[in-house]
Amino acid sequence: MRINIFYLIAGLLSLLLVATLWLLFVPPFYETEAYEMVRNLALIISALLVIVASIQIYLAVRSENAEEERALAKPPVAPTIVKEKEIVREVVMIPCSYCGGLMPQTSMVCPNCGARRKA
Ligand SMILES: [Zn+2]
Asked: Is the dihedral of CA 65, 67, 68, 70 positive or negative?
């Protein structure tokens, strides 16, 4: 199973954003009056980002599978043009030693008189 790296990075960045939110943004508000509000805000943002990250990671895994399924559903088109290999064979004709008719060097008997080829 391959993974779409772009969606995966986006998903991980969203998670990184959540971590940043809690590690850098919220701490300065500890023990201040605004802390509870900031924490609630951070919770909401975190929840949204986690949902977004989940979708992105889900897409990272799914999109590649979908492509594979599409590829499987559509079998590769068979080549329509069958290149017929032209076999050029040079046939050497030799005269028959009995009837004098020409016969291919490859044949063992004369097609004209039926005599076996000498040598
Ligand atoms: Zn012959």
From this structure: positive
In angstroms, what is the span from residue 104 Cα to ligand 1's centroid? Answer: 11
The closest of 90, 98, 12, 102 to 57, measured between CA atoms, is 12
By three-state DSSP, how is residue 96 classified? coil
C-alpha span between 21 and 40 (Å, rounded)? 12
C-alpha of residue 95 to centroid of ligand 1, in Å? 8
* Rg (alpha carbons) of the chain, rounded to whole number: 40
| pLDDT < 50 stretches in the chain | none
CA of 58 to the centre of ligand 1 (A): 82
Question: Can you give the pLDDT at residue 43?
Answer: 93
